[in-house]
Amino acid sequence: MTKRYVVRPETAVLTRGFDPKLSVGSARPAVFRSSTYVFSSPESAARAFDIALGRAKPTPDESVDLIYSRLSHPNAEILEDQLVPLERDATEAAVFNSGMAAISSIFLTFCPPGSGVVHTTPLYGGTQLFLDAMLTPLGVRFGVADAGDGKALGATIARMKGLKVVFLESPANPTLRMTDIAAVVEAAHAHPDRPLVVVDNTFLGPAFQHPLSLGVDLVVYSATKYLNGFSDLLGGVVLARDRELITQLRSTRALLGNILQPDECWLLNTRLPTVALRMNKQSKNAQRIAEALQGHPALERVIYPSLFTEPDQVRIRNAQCDHPGGIITLELKGGRPAAFSFLRRIRIAHNAVSLGGVESLACHPRTTTHSEMSPEQLDHAGISEGMVRLSIGIESCNDLLTDFRGGLDGL
Length: 411
Ligand SMILES: Cc1ncc(COP(=O)(O)O)c(C=O)c1O
Description:
The protein has 14 helices and 12 strands. It is of the alpha/beta class and 411 residues long. The radius of gyration is 22 Å and the shape is globular. The model has no long low-confidence stretch (mean pLDDT 96). Pyridoxal-5'-phosphate binds next to helix 4 and helix 5.
């Protein structure tokens, strides 16, 4: 019998889920672009369909034939296996062709028409628009609480009837307000409907925040961001402790046809072993830059987790985040004109949406990523005219600091 070692995540991400024998000995996985798969026998085909359609469950060591790549394909299976060790307490993952595909599939799977959803605000603009434009017409009802307001969130959860999903973004995009994940889990577990708790962990995970360990049911990512890290593909990931939840999501994925394609899976696969290395460097860079920019006369304030002063935000940060992460939000004095001048003047960081890449990016959330929100919603969420979101890359932090100071000086 071969001895099995229990290895750490940084080893598992390189050794799990891939058998070179299935790729003619290639040390890295091949790309399997086939849209359909040849069955080993008609009986195996029938068995594969029984399992895919939920009429039968595979036995623990059963090798089930692949069917058709809208359902799954070898590169998705390899990627899903290698994602699992990166997320503490995960047992299963499902990959999607964007973060929005992952998020929308969660809601479409677990929120039938007429059900209740509680979420924090602000949310990424695309998520908010999906809830408003696609779920409201299905009669889904919403309870909304400000990110970080544990009391309001607890009361909103307790009040909601037919509650199916509690959805959190922590830290919130772009205000970086943190929500006490463990407290939300407690409130959800006390609810008679036992809703699923879902955390969008795009900003700090998988390296610095571990929601499944805090009792969360599903963790979702825009893999377009830190997981990939090179701003050259779109992807989404959902991870869970309970395999059954991922099985249900895969059924939705097969119907919607939003699985991540083989080439993208292969590419994302090559980026996983460096996620922690990149995120650590980005967080170190961001912390030095945020702390150096604080107090600059052109700035109203610098929002960054290591600079939090509100006692409850400090408590939440200390309890649930290992490091502050690579996103800094600046509030410039002088509103939109000052923010736009800053974006025109910086030379290293590009003025682009998205985040988490090795190159630094800067954007004006109020007119771009969050422009779907009404002026009242934006004001309420604290997404001001003078706000600029910085995604810090792995460049020299001294060069970046010179660039940002050049953008701010004399504004
Ligand atoms: C926090 C967060 N969640 C989800 C998404 C959506 O991801 P995608 O663009 O991969 O669909 C984004 C995109 O910016 C995001 O910032």
